[in-house]
Design goal:
heterodimer; A: 568 residues; alpha/beta; Rossmann fold; 2 domains; six-stranded mixed β-sheet; two-stranded antiparallel sheet; 24 helices; 8% strand; elongated; B: 83 residues; alpha+beta; SH3 type barrels
C-alpha cells in the first residue's frame, strides 16, 4: 500500500512525515524545503504501508517542475493524506477539491492547528468533514498532536469524486465552504506581526537583515570556537595524544605503518595539522577542526529556516539577484551552500527555469565555500591574521558577483520574476531544532569521516609510490608561474577533488607564506567542487551543462588565482 | 460620498486595501496567482514594496505573497476612496 502526503508548499508535510514514520527528515519554514520524494514506512493495524512525502504543490494543473512531479505521482497512490494549513483554509482547499475529483481515497490533516487560535480563526471541523465528505483531523506536526487519530481514521478515507467543470465553479464552492465553517474573531496585532511587517519594509528589512547577518556570524563563531576550545581540543590533547604517542613508540617511532597510522612526528611530537596519519590528522580534521563549525553553522541555519526568515531575505535580495540572472529565491540554495554544496545544488529545484538552475549551481560551486572548507580556511589562514581570511572571502564574493553578471549576459533566456508565499514567523520547539541539527550533524559524520580517512590513506600511499612527485613536476610551470605556489601544492589541489578540508590540511606542512595560503585556498575553493558535489551537479544539470560549469570554474580559478598573485 | 479608483497593485500605497478586478496577463500568470489565492474579486492589502522596482508584498486572507514588480503592475485593483 502506498500513502501519499500531499498539500500546498510549507504546510508542514515533512514534520508530519517525521511523526508518522519515525524517520526524521529536514523540515523548515519556507515553501520548497522538500524537492525530492522521501519514502518511509508506517505500520497501522496489521498493515505495512509505504508513505511518501510529496513536494508541495498549489494545484494539480502544474506550473513548475516540482508541481509536475507531484501531479504525476498521484496515479500511484492508494491513499492520500491531504495536509492543509488551517490558517489558510481557502487557498488550501483549492488543492483539496482537486484531489477529491480523483478516484483515490483522501483523508484531510488540518495542520498547524495550534496556530489557529492566536490568529483569531475558528473552524467547525465536524461541518467541514460533512461538506467535504472525507475525514478531517486537526493535527500539529511539530508536536505530534492528532497523529494517532489521523492514523486510526485511515480506513474511513473516501473518494467522493465530485467534479467541477471550471476553476470558477470550484472557487465558488470553496467560498461557500469557508463561509460555513470558518469564523474570524477580532484580535490585536501581536509582536510577531509587527516584526513581520517591519521585515517587509525596505528600510526595516535592510536593518533586520544586517542585524541577522551580524548576530549569525557571532553565534557561529562563538559556538564553533567554544566547542574547539572547551571540548574537542582538550579531548584530543589530554586523551588522544598520549594514546597515540604510546602507539608511536610501539611502532618504533617511524616506518611505513607508523607513517600511515600515526603520521610523521614533528619535532618528536604529533601535530594534528601536519602529521597526516590516519589516526592523527585523519580523525582530527573531521571531528575537531570541521565538526564544531558544522554544529555551529547548522544550529544558526536551522533557526533561521524554522523562524521563516529566509523568504523575507529573498524578497530583499531580489533586485540584486536579478542582475545575476536570478531572482530572490535563489538566495536559499546559496545560503544552504555555506553548509554543504550537495543539498544546495539539489535545492536549486525550487527555481523555475533551467537557466536559473545552471547559473545558481555554477555560482554556488565557485563562490560559496562549504562549512568544512571554511573551518579549515579559518583555522589555517586565520593563523596568519584575520585580514587574510577576509581577502579569501572578498575574492570569492567579488568573483561570485562578476561571474553572475557575465552569465546573465551570456546564457540565453531571461530571469523570471519572483512569486513566493511569505510564511508567518514561527518559533518551533527547541526539541524540533535539536532534532534537525542532530540529523544534519550525524549525516556529516557518517558521510565525511570515511571519505576523509580514505583520502588521508590515498595521500600516504601515493606519497610512498612517488606519484605526487611526477604530477608536481608536470604542473610546476603553471603553479609557480601563475600562482607563485611551490610545486608540491598541486598535491593538495588534486586531493581537493576528494575532500576540501583534507586538501587545505595538506597545505599546512608546506610552510606557505600568508600570500601563498590566500592564493591556494581561494583557488581550491573555486577550481573544482568535491566529488560529491560533482556527482550531484551532473545529475541535476545533465552532463553537458556540468562540463560547461566545470569549464567556467577552471577559468575563474585560473584568472582569480593569478590576479591575487600579481596584486598581493 | 465615495468613489472607486482603478489602479495597478504596483501603484497602490502601502497599507491600502483594494479588490482585484482583472489580471492583465496570460493563462500562466493567472494560474500561478490563482494558486496563491489572488484572483478577481479577492480583497488584497498591499504591505510594502522594495526600492528600485523590487518585489511587492501583499496580503490576501492570511497569506502574505511577494511578487515581482512587473507582475504587480499586471494586477488591476479597484480602491474605494471615501471623499
Amino acid at each position: 500500500m502506498k500513502i501519499l502526503l500531499m498539500g500546498n508548499p510549507n504546510v508542514g508535510k515533512s514534520a508530519l512525515f517525521s511523526r508518522l514514520t519515525g524517520t526524521r527528515i529536514i523540515a523548515s519554514n519556507y515553501p520548497g524545503t522538500t524537492v525530492e520524494f522521501t519514502k518511509g514506512a508506517l505500520t497501522f493495524g496489521q498493515e505495512q504501508a509505504d508513505i511518501i512525502d510529496v513536494p508541495g504543490t498549489y494545484t494539480l494543473e502544474p506550473t513548475s517542475k516540482a508541481e509536475e512531479v507531484a501531479a504525476e505521482i498521484l496515479q500511484e497512490g492508494d491513499l492520500i493524506i491531504d495536509v492543509i494549513d488551517a490558517t489558510n483554509l481557502e487557498r488550501n482547499l483549492n488543492l483539496t477539491l482537486q484531489l477529491l475529483e480523483r478516484p483515490v481515497p483522501v483523508i484531510v490533516a488540518l495542520n498547524m492547528w495550534d496556530d489557529v487560535h492566536h490568529r483569531g480563526i475558528n473552524i467547525d471541523v465536524a461541518r467541514l468533514e460533512e461538506l467535504l465528505g472525507v475525514p478531517v483531523v486537526p493535527t500539529v506536526g511539530v508536536t505530534g498532536q492528532g497523529i494517532k487519530e489521523l492514523v486510526s481514521r485511515f480506513p474511513e478515507a473516501a473518494a467522493p469524486q465530485v467534479i467541477y467543470s471550471s476553476s470558477d465553479e470550484r472557487w465558488a464552492k470553496i467560498g461557500d465552504i469557508v463561509s460555513q465553517v470558518q469564523s474570524l474573531s477580532h484580535r490585536h496585532h501581536t509582536w510577531r506581526e509587527v516584526l513581520e511587517d517591519a521585515s517587509s519594509h525596505p528600510a526595516g528589512g535592510i536593518a533586520i537583515a544586517l542585524l541577522v547577518l551580524v548576530v549569525t556570524f557571532f553565534v557561529i563563531r562563538f559556538i564553533g570556537e567554544g566547542i574547539i576550545n572547551y571540548i574537542t581540543d582538550p579531548l584530543f590533547n589530554w586523551l588522544w595524544t598520549p594514546l597515540l604517542m604510546k602507539l608511536s613508540l610501539a611502532l618504533g617511532s617511524g616506518g611505513f605503518w607508523h607513517d600511515i597510522l600515526v603520521g610523521k612526528l614533528i619535532n618528536g611530537n604529533i601535530d594534528y595539522f601536519q602529521s597526516f596519519g590516519l589516526l592523527s590528522t585523519g580523525i582530527y580534521i573531521p571531528l575537531a577542526a570541521v565538526l564544531p563549525y558544522i554544529v555551529a553553522f547548522y544550529f544558526a541555519l536551522g533557526i533561521l529556516e524554522d523562524i521563516g526568515y529566509l523568504p523575507r531575505l529573498a524578497v530583499l535580495m531580489d533586485t540584486l539577484m536579478h542582475r545575476l540572472g536570478l531572482h530572490g529565491y535563489a538566495i536559499i540554495p546559496t545560503i544552504l551552500g555555506f553548509g554543504c554544496n550537495v543539498p544546495a545544488v539539489m535545492a536549486t529545484r525550487i527555481l523555475e527555469s533551467r537557466r536559473e538552475r545552471f547559473i545558481v549551481a555554477t555560482l554556488i560551486s565557485i563562490g560559496i565555500p562549504c562549512a568544512a572548507l571554511q573551518a579549515m580556511i579559518i583555522g589555517l589562514v586565520g593563523q596568519q591574521g584575520i585580514q587574510y581570511v577576509a581577502i579569501v572571502y572578498g575574492s570569492l564574493f567579488v568573483s561570485w558577483i562578476i561571474i553572475g553578471l557575465i552569465l546573465n549576459y551570456t546564457v540565453k533566456g531571461f530571469s523570471p520574476e519572483l512569486i513566493i508565499e511569505i510564511p508567518p514567523y514561527r518559533f518551533p520547539p527547541w526539541r524540533v531544532i535539536g532534532e534537525k541539527l542532530w540529523l544534519r550533524v550525524s549525516g556529516f559524520v557518517k558521510e565525511a569521516l570515511p571519505i576523509v580517512l580514505g583520502a588521508v590513506l590515498v595521500v600516504n600511499i601515493l606519497y610512498v609510490l612517488g606519484v605526487f612527485d611526477f604530477i608536481a613536476n608536470l604542473t610546476a610551470p603553471l603553479l609557480t608561474g601563475l600562482y607563485g605556489l611551490p610545486k608540491e601544492s598541486v598535491v593538495a589541489l588534486t586531493i581537493g577533488f576528494l575532500r576540501k578540508d583534507v586538501a587545505v590540511g595538506m597545505l599546512a606542512p608546506l610552510g606557505l607564506t600568508a600570500k601563498q595560503l590566500v592564493v591556494s585556498t581561494t583557488v581550491m575553493a573555486m577550481v573544482f567542487p568535491c566529488v560529491a558535489t560533482f556527482v550531484i551537479l551532473a545529475r541535476e544539470l545533465g552532463a553537458r551543462d556540468m562540463l560547461k560549469a566545470s569549464g567556467i570554474m577552471l577559468a575563474a580559478a585560473l584568472i582569480v588565482g593569478s590576479l591575487q598573485n600579481l596584486i598581493l | 460620498m465615495s468613489q472607486n479608483i482603478q489602479m495597478t497593485l504596483g501603484q497602490m500605497e502601502a497599507g491600502q486595501v483594494g479588490t482585484v478586478i482583472q489580471i492583465l496577463g496570460g493563462r500562466g500568470l493567472n494560474q500561478r496567482l490563482e494558486a496563491l489565492g489572488i484572483r478577481p474579486g479577492k480583497k488584497v492589502t498591499k504591505i510594502s514594496s522594495m526600492l528600485f522596482r523590487g518585489p511587492v508584498t501583499l496580503r490576501a486572507d492570511h497569506t502574505q505573497v511577494a511578487i515581482g514588480f512587473g507582475m504587480a503592475n499586471k494586477i488591476l485593483v479597484e480602491i474605494n476612496k471615501s471623499a
